[in-house]
Amino acid sequence: MVIDLELVEYNKALEVQKELFTRVRNGTLNSAVVFCRHYPVITLGRRAKSANIKADQAELARQGITVYQSERGGDVTYHGPGQLVVYPVVRLDFFNKDIHFFLRTLEENVIALLSAFGIKAEARKGLTGVWVGEQKICSIGITVKNWISYHGLAINVSADDLENFSLIHPCGMDIKMTSMETILKKEVSFSEVQKHFIKEYKYA
């Protein structure tokens, strides 16, 4: 099942994921993948340190950015309208009940779709996500319960939405983020990115 929520609040997307999780756990749904874009939000993963948010609450409020404590893995990240966010809700039986294998599969999916746009990307040993040179273009953070995964990944598509990453230490690191439009120097269609992800991802 493929669901496109378009531009949606983070909490609403989480509600949808949990409903799908329950259906997969109960056996009434095989698997699903949710696509969306989020209104500006900073999320803190299970290992996140609040010090990795560089802006104070007043600055975040001024910019209309909410902060949400998430149960996903990883540290702090930013989500905004310029990203395509993908939430696979899937039994890890398909991935030999191997969380690392599932994460590497997601990275490979993203690398393949970026290649379709002429972008050469790679995964880095010991780190989760996808990189173009020294800059990160995709962040990944999942939750696994009852061997069912939810939460997921965010691909930076639009060049307009990178500035808010300066408010945090992305993934708890001192790194620079990039986007598909920044690299290609042209507008990129979200629907085309979504189409290529579905082509590479074969579990929905």
Structure overview:
With 204 residues, the chain is an alpha+beta fold. It contains five helices and nine strands, in the order βαββαβββαβββαα. The chain has one domain: BirA Bifunctional Protein, domain 2.
Short summary of the structure?
28% of the residues lie in helices and 28% in strands.
Name of the CATH superfamily: Bira Bifunctional Protein, Domain 2
Structural class: alpha+beta
Radius of gyration: 16 Å
**Averaged pLDDT:** 92
Form type: globular
Distance between the termini: 5 Å
Q: Based on DSSP secondary structure assignment, what is the total number of beta strands?
A: 9
CATH architecture, please? Answer: 2-Layer Sandwich
CATH topology: BirA Bifunctional Protein, domain 2
CATH level 1 class label: Alpha Beta
Low-confidence stretches: none
Share of β-strand residues: 25-35%
Number of domains: 1
Keywords:
single chain; 204 residues; alpha+beta; BirA Bifunctional Protein, domain 2; six-stranded mixed beta sheet; 5 helices
List the helices and strands and how they pair.
Blueprint: E1 2-8, H1 10-26, E2 32-38, E3 41-44, H2 57-62, E4 66-69, E5 76-79, E6 83-91, H3 99-116, E7 130-132, E8 135-145, E9 148-156, H4 180-184, H5 190-200
Parallel strand pairs: 1-2, 3-4
Antiparallel strand pairs: 2-6, 3-5, 6-9, 7-8, 8-9
